[in-house]
Design goal:
The protein is an alpha+beta fold. The chain has a single domain (2-266), classed as q2cbj1_9rhob like domain (Jelly Rolls, Sandwich). The protein is built from four helices and 16 strands. Strands 4, 5, 6, 7, 8, 15 and 16 form a seven-stranded antiparallel beta sheet that branches. The chain has a four-stranded antiparallel beta sheet with strand order 1-2-11-12, with no helix packed on it. It has a three-stranded antiparallel beta sheet with strand order 3-10-13, with no helix packed on it. It is globular.
Length: 268
């Protein structure tokens, strides 16, 4: 079935067999890492990351890594500003080739910053956490690359609709082009709604003729309060995987939005 969902002047179609779960809160069935925090009710928080010197070093490391990954994807970026990535892409296949190189990146490529981020998120959650997937032990992160006014974004969804992402906490770090027109969209407080509030696809949604792994939101019985928290440079966004999020079209006219994204689980 094809349903249209409007978000932030965006209208897109979601295709897939409809599914409505039982009348429980998914967050209550799993390990809720936001439960003991003062941001549990909205489901997200924006916090400072480094001091000015450390921030400059971090972004320099990330930019160097990004250029390497984009080049490995077959796009010669040279010294062109990273937020101009979209000007180098001939077609969608070019972009997909880069996406393949910018996801599931091994933790070792973050160097010392991997453990720094684990420590920072642990402090924010008041729980020791590690970025290590319980199901397979993967210690990875990825870059999200969203070109201006292109359908490069996920449909609205909960990460926890996929079992492998239950019990985690999410991290979003703006790298370039992330602002009030492009940063990640969240549905504030939606993690506290019962699951029968939502109609979603049974499996990965199909949106704008692109197949995604995540089930997609089709509709909600309750109104959803969509926000773009928009962390500044040197800030991070931490949010619950039980929040509805996604649908984050980049409304910039001439800037690619790139963010670093990771997940964390309770440290055993």
């Amino acid at each position: 079935m094809k349903i249209k969902v409007g978000v932030d002047r965006l209208e897109y179609s979601v295709e897939g067999r409809q599914f409505v779960d039982s009348c429980y809160r998914l967050i209550d069935k799993d390990d809720d890492l936001s439960n003991q925090t003062d941001w549990h009710e909205p489901g997200y928080i924006v916090k400072d990351l480094f001091d000015e010197t450390a921030s400059s070093e971090f972004l320099s490391h990330i930019e160097s890594l990004l250029r390497k990954k984009i080049t490995a994807g077959g796009v010669s970026i040279g010294q062109k500003p990273i937020d101009q990535y979209h000007t180098l892409i001939k077609d969608y296949q070019d972009h997909l080739n880069v996406v393949e190189k910018t996801k599931l990146i091994e933790s070792v490529e973050l160097g010392k910053y991997f453990e720094i981020l684990e420590k920072q998120v642990s402090e924010i959650c008041h729980i020791p956490v590690v970025s290590k997937k319980p199901m397979n032990g993967e210690r990875v992160f990825h870059f999200r690359v969203i070109r201006p006014n292109q359908a490069d974004f996920n449909p609205l969804h909960k990460d926890a609709w996929q079992e492998e992402n239950c019990g985690c906490i999410n991290l979003y770090i703006p790298i370039c082009g992330s602002n009030e027109k492009s940063s990640l969209i969240l549905a504030k407080g939606s993690h506290l709604h019962a699951e029968d509030t939502f109609t979603r696809t049974t499996e990965g949604a199909r949106m704008n003729n692109v197949q995604f792994n995540v089930p997609g939101l089709i509709s909600s019985k309750l109104p959803l309060e969509f926000v773009r928290p928009n962390p500044n440079p040197n800030q991070i966004l931490v949010f619950s995987p039980y929040l509805i999020h996604g649908g984050s079209i980049n409304l910039n006219t001439d800037q690619t939005r790139i963010s670093l994204e990771m997940r964390f689980w309770r440290k055993n």
